[in-house]
């Protein structure tokens, strides 16, 4: 996701611009905002209740604001991300929060010369699995790799990794499809 597009990218660009404006007064503001967004993305990834809450279009802005800000307060999320979430709630775009967090991470990684690996799995990754994936990619000659995770239960298991134009598909779904093609060819 080197060049994010659409509304999530615009929100991410705006947040990056705000962080740039604040860097003179607070040199580590980019890292702090990135950590806040990573924390929210991790919560979204690991907590089905939170995923359902932010994706529920039936909730009004007041309920979304109260529920989301309670979560942000508990997580110690900073003012910039709180303000971003407030704007997203007002614009009825809270469901895009994970995409905005990923777009911000991709923009920041690009700025820092890091490579983003889009990893799709059937189930959320554990911290150990994340570490192992980064280690394998580093062994393969990639440096400064950061993961952008997606969950797709339809792949059944395994994982799909996309880095730029390279695709590594080790999903059970693909293995079954290859087996099916091989069996058709043998018949």
TrEMBL record:
Entry keyword annotation includes Nucleus: no
Main location: membrane
Membrane topology reported for the UniProt record: Peripheral membrane protein
GO cellular component, one term: plasma membrane
Subcellular location, record wording: Cell membrane; Membrane
Membership in a protein family: Belongs to the ATPase delta chain family.
Biological function: F(1)F(0) ATP synthase produces ATP from ADP in the presence of a proton or sodium gradient. F-type ATPases consist of two structural domains, F(1) containing the extramembraneous catalytic core and F(0) containing the membrane proton channel, linked together by a central stalk and a peripheral stalk. During catalysis, ATP synthesis in the catalytic domain of F(1) is coupled via a rotary mechanism of the central stalk subunits to proton translocation. This protein is part of the stalk that links CF(0) to CF(1). It either transmits conformational changes from CF(0) to CF(1) or is implicated in proton conduction.
Name of protein: ATP synthase subunit delta
Organism: Neoroseomonas soli
Lineage of source species: Bacteria, Pseudomonadati, Pseudomonadota, Alphaproteobacteria, Acetobacterales
UniProt gene name: atpH
């Amino acid at each position: 996701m080197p060049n994010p597009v659409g509304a999530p990218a615009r929100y991410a660009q705006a947040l990056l611009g705000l962080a740039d404006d604040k860097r003179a007064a607070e040199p580590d503001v980019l890292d702090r905002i990135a950590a806040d967004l990573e924390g929210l993305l991790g919560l979204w990834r690991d907590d089905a209740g939170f995923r359902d809450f932010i994706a529920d279009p039936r909730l009004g802005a007041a309920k979304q604001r109260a529920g989301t800000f309670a979560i942000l307060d508990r997580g110690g999320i900073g003012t910039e991300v709180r303000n971003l979430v407030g704007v997203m709630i007002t614009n009825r775009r809270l469901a895009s929060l994970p995409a905005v967090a990923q777009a911000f991470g991709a923009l920041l990684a690009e700025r820092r010369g890091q490579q983003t690996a889009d990893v799709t799995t059937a189930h959320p990754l554990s911290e150990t699995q994340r570490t192992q994936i980064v280690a394998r990619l580093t062994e393969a000659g990639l440096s400064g790799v950061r993961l952008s995770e997606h969950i797709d239960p339809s792949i059944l298991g395994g994982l799909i990794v996309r880095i730029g134009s390279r695709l590594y598909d080790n999903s059970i779904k693909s293995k079954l499809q290859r087996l099916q093609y091989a069996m058709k060819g043998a018949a």
